[in-house]
Specification:
Layout lengths: L1 H27 L14 E7 L5 E9 L6 E7 L8 E4 L5 E4 L2 E4 L9 E8 L3 E14 L7 E2 L6 E3 L3 E5 L6 E6 L4 E14 L10 E6 L11 E7 L3 E7 L7 E7 L5 E7 L6 E9 L1 E2 L1 E3 L11 E9 L3 E6 L9 H6 L3 H4 L3 E3 L4 E10 L4 E12 L3 E4 L5 E9 L14 E10 L2 H16 L5 E4 H10 L17 E8 L12 E8 L12 E3 L1 H4 L5 E9 L9 E3 L5 E3 L4 E10 L1
Antiparallel strand pairs: 1-8, 1-30, 2-7, 3-8, 4-7, 5-6, 9-15, 10-11, 11-12, 12-13, 13-14, 13-19, 15-16, 16-17, 17-18, 18-29, 19-28, 20-25, 21-22, 22-23, 22-25, 24-27, 25-26, 26-29, 27-28, 31-32, 32-37, 33-36, 34-35, 34-37
């Protein structure tokens, strides 16, 4: 079964790559740099914003082909304006550990990158040139500071993250606009698999270990990188186990903390988790109390269902009674039975409640949301906790094993606020942007210059007539009946839109109305007719939509339209 899934996934990935390659060629009308890296002075970047909202202060990260010797700039091709940017060197890979010098040969972060900030109009292409400042040497530019030279605090214009001076672990996140402070401690830990654990069963030992019993649980190396106005970062490297490296980033203009974790499951029968401990009291009285449960209050949290509906969960809702069968597996069901899937792209888990100090409770209702880029398991095993499963390696003799030792990169985003509705708002809008990523496409600068000359520097993109509410997300915009290449002409497009908010998520979670003509406008093109069709796009008993008809979407509602375009 797993082998069949592997074959299908490989075939799907290959087909997706071919489609992306063809789309790139047709979009740029030029030869592409197949290496997907930037050569300063020779490479330009094209980026498509597929959302119906303008995207402001977006951070684009691209890889350089080699270490720079001169200062590098990024220029907006449409305005000639130089954008805020910084070159980021590779994270140092050597450190002192237990009396010797060790090198992390497993690290992926060995390349030079450049980060720049740009705005992206709705439904349009943007082009950028990567240039060389020949009169400015690169030396003495920002670099990583490690050990005693590192910082214990990193800032953006909106957030501050502090780290414990002794342990170097995250200790708090501060909203600088409101001075709201959330106490939070992050740690990596692992469960030991028991008999019966497999690719389809999570059956851990009842004890969790901070990176195992015999390992140093503190980072072997701690480094910071700080460029005001662009990005501030912390890199933590653990020697053992799993050769783990974590990079925490704060970007200017963003209300979230972004974390990238690199690791490889070096030891079998281990299940790696990241755990965040906060001072939020997200418990409620135990309504499921019975003879097997002695807990008065149970943690309450939410996890996503396919990336949209947030489902209410209660830790230890069911009393798990040990049976002979469970004894056979040596499993503590209060662990395994309280993990829920984060199944969306992104997946999400949220908690909210009053902050608890040693003596009293804060009056504000605080909240935390944790988003993941791929599917994971998650739990809230104790008050204020969020726990996310990152990786598993299970050596099951039945043949249904998880024996992947490849280097893995996991991305997640953390949102904190003293308002649960504000966390929900940021979560929903961030999730929409993650679903519609800004993918840089590299191509020769000469081709970009030539194309700009041919079309007068103007791109024939869709334009938004009026500001579309942030609650509206364009799920898809597909040509109808085209099964060959992108060159095939069709006047029909299939358009799916969704209201991204859920009921009871604050003032933004309301019905929203708009006209289809507000979504699809470009010079010389109008909508001649449109009909509403089912989600599958099959026009059976389709309802015709008048030209000026207002379309209303309730929270989490999805509607699909077959639209005919014409010249006007």
């Amino acid at each position: 079964m797993t082998r069949d899934l592997d074959v299908r996934l490989v075939a799907s990935a290959a087909a997706s790559q071919r489609m992306l390659s063809n789309t790139r060629k047709d979009t740029l009308l030029s030869s592409l740099d197949n290496n997907n890296v930037v050569t300063p002075g020779k490479t330009s970047i094209s980026i498509w914003n597929g959302m119906v909202q303008d995207r402001i202060n977006e951070h684009i990260v691209v890889e350089l082909d080699e270490a720079p010797t001169k200062m590098i700039s990024v220029v907006d091709a449409s305005t000639g304006k130089k954008l805020p940017s910084t070159v980021v060197p590779p994270v140092p890979t050597k450190w002192k550990f237990k009396g010797g010098d060790l090198s992390n040969s497993y690290a992926n972060s060995t390349s030079w990158t450049i980060i720049f900030i740009a705005d992206f109009p709705a439904l349009s292409h943007s082009t950028f040139h990567v240039t060389i400042e020949n009169d400015i040497p690169y030396k003495n530019m920002p670099n990583w500071a490690c050990g005693k030279d590192s910082l214990n605090v990193i800032d953006s214009d909106l957030l501050r993250a502090t780290f414990d001076k002794m342990t170097k672990r995250l200790s708090s996140i501060i909203d600088l606009s409101t001075t709201f402070t959330l106490d939070v401690t992050q740690e990596y830990a692992e469960y030991h698999s028991t008999k019966g654990s497999s690719a389809y069963q999570f059956l851990p030992n009842r004890t969790i270990f901070p990176f195992g019993e015999s390992y140093d649980v503190l980072p072997a190396m701690f480094c910071t990188f700080n460029v005001p106005g662009v990005v501030s970062r912390v890199a933590q490297t653990y020697a053992e186990p799993h050769h783990l490296r974590e990079i925490i980033s704060l970007y200017n203009g963003k209300f979230h903390v972004e974390t990238t974790t690199e690791f490889s499951m070096s030891i079998p029968d281990r299940e790696l988790v990241t755990r965040y401990k906060t001072n939020i009291d997200n418990t409620e009285p135990n309504h499921y109390f019975n003879s097997t449960s002695k807990v008065d209050h149970l943690p309450v949290f939410e996890t996503d269902s396919n990336g949209y509906l947030m489902m209410r969960r209660v830790t230890n809702k069911t009393a798990w009674v040990e049976t002979a069968h469970e004894d056979y597996f040596h499993v503590a069901r209060p662990v395994a039975g309280n993990f829920y899937p984060l199944s969306g792209s992104p997946g999400a888990i949220r908690i909210n409640g009053k902050r608890k100090s040693e003596t009293n409770y804060d009056d504000d209702t605080s909240a935390v949301a944790f988003l993941t880029d791929t599917a994971h398991g998650a739990a809230a095993l104790q008050m204020g906790w969020i726990e996310v499963m990152l990786g598993r390696r299970v050596d099951e003799k039945s043949g249904i094993s998880v024996n992947d030792t490849d280097r893995v990169t996991a991305n997640n985003w953390m949102i904190v606020s003293n308002s649960s509705s504000e966390v929900a708002r940021i979560h929903r809008e961030l999730a929409s942007s993650i679903k519609t990523p800004l993918i840089p496409i590299m191509f020769p600068t000469s081709s970009a210059m030539q194309q700009n000359d041919e079309d007068g520097g103007k791109m024939k993109d869709l334009k938004i007539a009026s500001k579309i509410p942030n609650s509206i997300h364009l799920l898809s915009l597909d040509r109808v009946g085209v099964e060959t290449t992108i060159h095939e002409k069709s006047n029909n497009v299939l358009l799916r839109v969704a209201n991204i908010y859920q009921k009871n998520e604050g003032p933004h979670a309301t019905d929203v109305s708009f006209k289809l003509s507000d979504l699809l406008l470009t010079s010389g093109i109008c909508i001649s007719e449109s009909v509403e069709v089912p989600l599958n796009g099959v026009a059976v008993n389709a309802r015709k939509i008048a030209a000026n008809e207002m379309i209303t979407l309730s929270p989490l509602q999805i509607r699909t339209f077959d639209v005919v375009l014409k010249e006007c």
